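Progress report, Aim 2. The chain analyzed during this reporting quarter is listed below.
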Amino acid sequence: MVIRILCIGNSFSWDAVEQELVPLCDEKGVQVEVHNLYYGGCSLEQHADFLLRDTAVYSHRVCTNAVPRLVKDTITLRQALMDGTYDYISLQQASHDSGIKSSYEPWLSMLIDTVRRYQPSARLCWMQTWAYAADAKHPAFPRYHNNQQEMWDSIQSCTRYVVQIVHRKSSNCKWILVPCGLAIQNARATKLGDTLCRDGYHLNYVYGRYTAACVWYEIITGKDVRRNRYRNPEMSNKQRRWTQRSAHRAVKKTENAFF
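Predicted structure tokens for the chain:
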């Protein structure tokens, strides 16, 4: 059985699923096929606009056990949703809007309705993004007064808002929270400190991306990532333990968030 995933995302889903998720699955013999619809900085509003216009703007990246990463032809969101059956489909907000409540609706509801129309059996996911590093130079960071804790608190508030939206739309709509943001915040509380990002907002290529992928691994497999021996070759065993524990704690804390 191959687990098929579709991420309706941007560079943050690129960080989370394109590099480390397949190797983690390989370690335990899990067959996986990850489709990431990439458009840099794409917000929910922009995704909805592309959907309405049926615009072929997404870089279609596919990662499998056999082929770690393949960039296919540019496609539309509708084309991706019609490409076979997915087990998991995730939505997320652009990082700069992640803590701005007014940026979510009506676009999130529109995307939910469309996903469910084309993929009624898929498990819908909300990928929680992470707060910027304390010294980030991102032009949107002043929205949060250049304060990591304020940004993180705002993201958590908006995550609760997403829960309300989903419950309002359908009490029978089963969702899963993919708490990458919480995992990154947990990892920042370890000896890794505030080093998870490579440029202030994208995850670094070693233990940053690994932490987010560990969250995804637990979500799609139901397995405890702390029992997975794979680590990025540039990581130490201590870094593997710190990041795996951070991801596991995040998943356990939020696993009943969407029911």
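Residues 20 and 210 are 6 Å apart (CA to CA). The longest strand covers residues 31-38. These observations will guide the mutagenesis work planned for the next reporting period.
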